[in-house]
Amino acid sequence: MIRTRFAPSPTGYLHIGGVRTALFSWAYARKNNGVFVLRIEDTDLERSTPESVKAIMDGMHWVGLDYDEGPFYQTQRFDRYKEVIQQLLESGHAYRCYCSKEELEAMRAEQEAKGEKPRYDRRWRPEEGKTLPAIPADVEPVIRFRTPLDGTVAWDDAVKGRIEFSNTELDDLIIARPDGSPTYNFCVVVDDWDMQITHVIRGDDHVNNTPRQINILKALNAPLPVYGHLPMILNEDGQKMSKRRDAVSVVDYADKGILPEALLNYLARLGWGHGDDEFFDMKQFVEWFSLEAVSASASRFNQEKFLWLNAQHIKAADNSRLAALIAPRLAAAGVDTTTGPAIEEVIALVKERVQDLNALALEVDYFYQKREAAAADVEKHLAGDAVARMGRFADKLAALDSWTAASIHELFKPFCAEEGIKMGQLGMPLRVLVCGTTQTPSVDAVLALIGKEEVLRRLRA
Length: 461
What we know:
The protein is of the alpha/beta class. Among the domains are: about 320-365; about 375-460, Arc Repressor Mutant, subunit A (Orthogonal Bundle), CATH 1.10.10.350. Helix content is about 45%, strand content about 10%. The chain has a three-stranded parallel β-sheet, with helices on one face. It has a three-stranded antiparallel β-sheet with strand order 4-5-8. β6 (about 150-155) and β7 (about 160-165) form a beta hairpin. The longest helix has 16 residues, at about 15-30. GO terms for molecular function: ATP binding; glutamate-tRNA ligase activity; tRNA binding; zinc ion binding. Monomer. It comes from Aquitalea magnusonii.
């Protein structure tokens, strides 16, 4: 059975690179009727925080990526890691190193002075015929993995193709710190082994970790998973996305009024494609997805295309759901929708005009309360006898027996002829007086929804 995993470190927010990794891992498991595992890699005790764990869990819930097993926490598995470390020590695949911090710093300085690549010189590595230094009394040892001295580590990456590393490029990795706590690269190996992960789909910043992890798996006689390393997501300038310049947290996008399905849809298209298809839901994505179709090249995040896609998902979304999503935004702005037109009808009218939920909330507000019109709009559209003219039009509206967009529209042409004006000289003042803005959908539809009593009140205020 296919088993994939998403294994974020809780040292900050859930960023969109992580969401894409989770999405592709989730989709591969769903496509193959497999299992998707959530694992929290919290071995960095200084940087991991409960707040970050919550941010990850909230982010996964928001985007709707459900997991079948977990969440598993590495900090709850320390006994298991120590057990495997002991196994490696007994089999000769790991050893204790008593180098002090000062010795390692001196070693590095000497190598750099010679123009050599800094690396541990294996002075504590047991070898046949080698005499090890005397064990110092005041140094707690680290445990190092005994990396093969020759040969290569190679794998057929599901995304990048054949990748090879020479073991001569790898040093003897620390797998346990002086306090006995295991290190990241070691824990990942044990977790993937114990959780029977068949496919490791992750960012390509982990490519350099892979040969080290493969060597440990081989030392444990454990099966090797299939590795697939996803390319980086760049911003529009071709640079790595950063929190300072770019909205990269899931929370950032939620706050900006992005629908979760739109974010997933767009992230799916970053590095993967299905012909010219741009707009699709996750059911369709799972049906189409394959690792073979994932690009090995970095992708650029195009804000304009992203917002266009969000707009398409807003148009397709159920109006009741959209009403629930913008309710907190309207409440924060002091907009009461309990009186006035049905908000679902308002949303149906205006959602074609917006690209995000924040804009949708702004489009909705004037149906329930008149905005304060901009001075420039007042000066441009309510000058001269425009206000008096609106009073005369209000009388026409008041005489209507049927209050519909069609009946209101029927008044426009004869009124303009009677007043000797063009439609813009009626429509724009109407919008400014009734809505407080010149940017609205068809004015007859707007007036019909706001309601006769309220429209007349605003026109005659």
